[in-house]
Design a protein that fits this description.
The structure is a homodimer. Chain A has one domain: 3-Layer(aba) Sandwich (Rossmann fold). Chain A contains nine helices and five strands; from the N terminus they run E-H-E-H-E-H-H-E-H-E-H-H-H-H. In chain A, helix 1 crosses helix 6 and helix 4 crosses helix 5. Chain A is α/β, with parallel strands linked by helices and about 230 residues long. The radius of gyration of chain A is 17 Å and the shape is globular. Chain A has a five-stranded parallel sheet, sandwiched between helices. At the A-B interface, strand 3, helix 3, helix 4 and helix 5 of A face strand 3, helix 3, helix 4 and helix 5 of B.
Chain lengths: ~230, ~230
């Protein structure tokens, strides 16, 4: 029996591998979960269906999908447009899939919801080890934001990032430990928005590498294979 | 001739007295201004018209009105509902007009736009002296957020808050100095969303007090009187 951290938490749930793992990590540590998904005009809207399915599988108390139009209106990222995805064509060698400020906005909105729910804990799948060049995934950024939220809302907020210092292989092992493997069969990762996944985009390759190094077969690929039969 | 700080800046423009003063403050210090207004379901939509008029009067390079539906969806403030406005019915004696995280979101989105524009300066009318109980108006909050944005976007951002330590009377004097008085006749302040202003809500009273202490007649009231004739 895991010791509970607090009665409830708000979990950022994109429908991807990392946030799904975090949702199940949180399920062991909080009695009541609130899942928050952002619909921000991303190319891979298939993620939203994945988030919906996974939230239901995990039995969350409430799942909100928040429509966020601002990032689209302000423009600029390949994830929100038809531009080809490249790993280093963004500013200062950032990948051109970088949406500036995305995680800052997501976490601040999650905190605003937590404030309404009288809840103090947020959980997010940010990871600095394989952070793919995204500076808003680093713990130093999260720490600074935590402080800004505490001061700006006068509300104690703890942002848990259980994957922050794990490799992708360790993250797969954690998923197995917390019972997330069934749900991972419904998670979505492919930047091209495909099921079965394209297998060649940076996101697919990173996911495959993690499962390979962990010596575990990806339940998403098992599901794809079974559906093809 | 005022020394310029940088070629361009993004100014948060609500259409109220403080942001109008800041826009003209910025006009003296930057060659090119980008004004950003948020339409977040506030009760006083008359502010949006005020912002539009004032941005045009100031000759900004571009004025964007961003629709932000998230705060409405997450709910909870008297400014977004039909609840009567009270000064201390919110959490921990915060006024019930407090929208948690509002300024954090506004500034982060302004920074995301600045990033696209390759601009490093933001200007906002936050004021700690008369901060009406809003913790997201304090300089300590702004400093923490500045750090979170720098780290999260890998982009140098300076958030200028020229009114931060001014009294409302000093702010009126600054408005006169930077040539904002004509535009202030079109600014909007009343929480009740009225023109002529109601004169009795906390926002109207705070505005009246500032002009009175500065010994200046409010150009908005002059305009209201002239229109009534």
């Amino acid at each position: 029996m895991m010791e509970k951290i607090a009665p409830s938490a708000v979990v950022l749930l994109s429908g991807g591998q990392d946030s799904t793992t975090c949702l199940y990590w949180a399920k062991k540590r909080f009695d009541r979960l609130y899942a928050l998904t952002f619909d921000y005009g991303q190319r891979h809207r298939i993620e939203l269906d994945a988030a919906h399915t996974i939230a239901r599988m995990a039995g969350v108390a409430e799942h909100r999908i928040l429509r966020m139009s601002e990032l689209e209106e302000l423009g600029g990222s390949a994830l929100l447009s038809d531009a080809p995805i490249q790993e280093t064509s963004g500013r200062g060698n950032l990948p051109n899939t970088f949406v500036p400020g995305r995680n800052l906005l997501f976490l601040t909105l999650a905190a605003a919801w937590a404030y309404q729910l009288e809840c103090h804990d947020l959980v997010g799948g940010m990871c600095q080890t394989d952070y793919s060049g995204y500076p808003d995934c680093r713990r130093a950024t999260i720490d600074a934001l935590e402080e800004a939220i505490r001061l700006g809302m006068e509300w104690e907020i703890r942002i848990h990032t259980p994957l922050m210092f794990l490799t992708k292989a360790q993250s797969v092992k954690l998923a197995a430990e917390v019972g997330a493997m069934d749900a991972l069969a419904y998670s979505h990762t492919c930047y091209e928005g495909r099921f079965p996944p394209c297998g060649i985009c940076p996101a697919c390759r990173l996911r495959a590498k993690g499962f390979e190094e962990a010596g575990v077969e990806d339940p998403l690929l098992i599901r794809a294979r079974e559906m093809a039969i």
